[in-house]
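Methods: holo model generation. Sequences were used as deposited, without trimming of termini or removal of tags, and paired with ligand SMILES retrieved from the corresponding compound records. Each pair was processed once, and we did not select among multiple samples. The sequence and flavin-adenine dinucleotide SMILES for this entry were:
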Amino acid sequence: MVKSVAIVGAGVSGLTCAVLFAERSYRTVIFAEETGERTTSAAAAAIWYPYDAEPADSVIAWALETYKVLVGLSRDSQTGVSMIELRSFSRTGEIPIPEWAIPLGAKRLVRDMLPVFNSGFALGVPLMDTTIYLDYLTNRFVNAGGSINGNVRFEKLEKVDPKFDLVINCAGIGARTLVPDADLEPHRGQVAIVPKLDLGHAVVCDDFPLMYAIPRANDCVFGGTNELSDHHDVDPATTSRIVAGCSRVLKIDKPKVLAERVGLRPFRKSGVRLERNRLRDGRTVIHNYGHGGSGFTLSWGCAKKVLDLAGLSG
Ligand SMILES: Cc1cc2nc3c(=O)[nH]c(=O)nc-3n(C[C@H](O)[C@H](O)[C@H](O)COP(=O)(O)OP(=O)(O)OC[C@H]3O[C@@H](n4cnc5c(N)ncnc54)[C@H](O)[C@@H]3O)c2cc1C
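and the model returned the structure below.
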């Protein structure tokens, strides 16, 4: 019988799990080295779309479950979730519409909508404005009785106070040393935040070089990069390249850069780790990390699976 739950990690994975446990009245505490703006989650774009995460079948199932929850949250403007048209393009050849996108209403874009690209499709998706949504999750968790202890770094999961009988590991790329797990790769992403643009839709091109423009309530996220690197510092030349590329596509003058962010997408070669295990001290641990470029997209589906694995979903 679970009495108290320790969640390691205050990114979108940890916060979403924390909300589910606390709202079921389990004593739940988050422990995290970094909180708020310093997490990878705060650097994300963060639009719903399965990208750079494995394995494909499970990823699509968790993503679709998350989609439903986010559509519900988008009805409340306080959540920071809204629905937006995502226009996904290819610079070469005909971009395939993924099978799972057809029931969601994906439509091929006609040629006159494609000034720079060769082909594209449009799809209505949830967009989480991280400047609002992460606070929304935090407040929802705290209002349900949860608490967050920041600036706590564990060298191993057994260091979590023994008074917690269930440990949930949502450490993102930090799981590489915490577990340890050599299967995790840092897929570094850099973005530039520019002033609000009235685009009316998001533009994404996954062909190299990765390019996206995601308009949010108060600003716009220009991206991006995806490279195997541990480098946390902003690279000014990359920012210039991103801003020039997005401005060219959107046919606007280069906007001023309000902020630059770097995050390490926690990509796991063998797939998202969502499994129940035992710590060396006999306690149950549930791992929930390795979501790569889809942490927001998979958040609610994976958090519900964590509840299942804990035997508490009934
Ligand atoms: C530029 C960029 C754009 C992105 N765009 C999107 C997008 O549009 N849509 C989408 O779905 N996803 C996107 N992603 C991916 C998404 O951001 C990640 O998948 C997601 O943030 C991972 O969340 P997490 O909670 O698992 O990890 P994190 O946000 O990294 O949180 C991990 C937490 O664990 C803590 N921690 C780690 N190690 C320890 C330790 N040893 N002791 C204590 N605490 C520890 C950290 O301090 C932190 O609090 C993007 C990522 C980047 C970088």
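The chain is about 25% helix and 30% strand.
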